[in-house]
Amino acid sequence: MAESPVAVFDRLVRQDVPESTPVLFDTACVLGGSIAGLLAARVLADYAREVLVIERDEVDVTGQPRAGVPHDQQAHALMPGGLALMEGWLPGITDEMRDDGGVLLTPDAMDFYVDGVEQLRTGDTHMLLSSRPFLESALRRRVLDLPNVSTITAQVTGLVYQDDAVSAVRYLEVDGEDILPVDFVVDAMGRSSNLSDWLDEAGYSRPHQQRMETGIHYTTAVFGGAGTGADRRFTTLQYPQFAGPGGLAAGLVVPVENDQRMVCLLVYGGNKPPGSMEEFRALCDRLPASFSRAADGVVVRDVMRFRQATSRRRDFVGLAHFPARIVSVGDAAVSLNAKYAQGVSSAALHAACLSDYLASDPDLALPGQRFFASQKVATDAAWGLSASADAVRTDILQGVERSEELQRQRSAMEQLMQAARTDATIAEACQAVRFMFAHPDTLADPALIERAVAVNQRAGRL
């Protein structure tokens, strides 16, 4: 009997790092040196004599922004499920990041709001918070410290195939193009990955791409001095269906390194994002107090905007003709609405899929369907949370009647979110999904929904 999505997800997020592994490859290559690529390189280091990461940007380990990550100056949140996976592959990285300035918070320093209503705090799970460049540089230092992992600064230009398998990578350096023979390739080239075009040009099946219009604008400013330090709190504010004050879709207050706070405000495309510090602070003043306190601090970095027009996913399962010895991870496989803060932890889950695949004694002469099948479970989980909510909002704006199934799902979710204000059992179940420890299907348990309805009826809600 096939594993259920819940069972697969549970196995992925709780997997142990193998104590001993076979050498499957002489040379493994990762295309892209961002978070997804670095985590894939860490997994491959257990199975390859040499792992090469080809990254087009000049990179260092000092936490500087990268041109290839245009959104890295916006606020990011590493969910605890993703952190647990990273800690398994890179033991001690949590303490290292905390000692270097990362912010490790206990549950009493985390606030979660849905439609402006604070949710019940539960559990004892900690969160590690920092800027995106700080996290990426910490991962890069640890991964490049591995004796069999190194980097090449170059632009990947294509793949070479032999016997229906990837056999080499073409890349362009300053002094010309070169070809690297490889035994396995991981595509971590992000949203703009060229893999689909390369496959199509070589006569292979092009993965199906699905898009969901989001039109999300996120705007972040960084503050220090007054309003930080003694009052370091992580706050997230979500408006699942209808826009909040000023057209707000979501907001984040993220304490980061150097005793600073990143405040991020996200609005949908039909609304105007704050363009000046005056407008930014005015909107913060209409939100929970942690937003206005943070924005009252000294301006370390002025308002910066970024727009993401669509969420995207590429589906590799069941393609008629696909080469062996290549997989795709991170935003190259699925790029999600930033409102739901799933991206970094999804990259960690894709690395878990790679670890699970390589530990299964795969037939490397065949396409990696076991990898793509487990990755689809992880992708479906993240996509189901974000894209279904975006679909509801899009239908409302366009005057489209929601399907009966979508109405049922959203009604159940509304019951759970309302009940999570006061019921610890429901709050814990919702938090496990939010923190990416549990598959969203766990919230479809009829007993849990019945409990939520009963709680809301007693409270006179809905």
Strand-helix topology:
Elements: H1 5-13, E1 25-31, H2 35-44, E2 48-55, H3 80-89, H4 93-100, E3 103-105, E4 110-114, E5 117-118, E6 127-129, H5 132-144, E7 149-153, E8 155-162, E9 165-173, E10 176-181, E11 184-187, H6 195-201, E12 208-224, E13 234-238, E14 248-256, E15 260-268, H7 277-284, H8 289-295, E16 298-315, E17 326-328, E18 334-335, H9 343-358, H10 369-398, H11 404-419, H12 424-434, H13 446-459
Parallel strand pairs: 1-2, 1-11, 2-7, 4-13, 11-17
Antiparallel strand pairs: 3-6, 4-5, 8-9, 9-10, 12-15, 12-16, 13-14, 14-15, 16-18
Helix pairs in contact: 2-5, 2-9, 3-9, 9-10, 11-13
In words, what does this structure look like?
The chain is of the alpha/beta class and 462 residues long. The protein has 13 helices and 18 strands. The strands form 4 sheets. The chain has an 8-stranded mixed sheet, sandwiched between helices. The protein has a 5-stranded parallel sheet with strand order 7-2-1-11-17, with helices on one face. Strands 8-9-10 form a 3-stranded antiparallel sheet, with no helix packed on it. It folds into 3 domains: 5-104 and 133-211 and 313-386, FAD/NAD(P)-binding domain; 106-128 and 213-309, D-Amino Acid Oxidase, subunit A, domain 2 (D-Amino Acid Oxidase, Chain A, domain 2); 400-459, no CATH class. Helices cover 34% and strands 27% of the residues.
Strand count, sense and closure of the main sheet?
A: 8 strands, mixed
CATH architecture identity of the largest domain: 3-Layer(bba) Sandwich
Share of helix, binned:
25-40%
Number of strands: 18
| Structural class determined from secondary elements | alpha/beta
Shape: globular
Write out the CATH superfamily name of the largest domain.
FAD/NAD(P)-binding domain
Strand order of the largest sheet: 5-4-13-14-15-12-16-18
CATH class of the largest domain: Alpha Beta
What name does CATH use for the topology of the largest domain?
FAD/NAD(P)-binding domain
Could you tell me the strand content as a percent range? Answer: 25-35%
What is the end-to-end distance?
Answer: 40 Å
Please give the count of helices.
13
Structurally, the number of domains stands at 3
Residue-averaged pLDDT, rounded?
A: 86
Low-confidence regions: 394-401
Q: What does the radius of gyration come to?
A: 22 Å
Oligomer: single chain
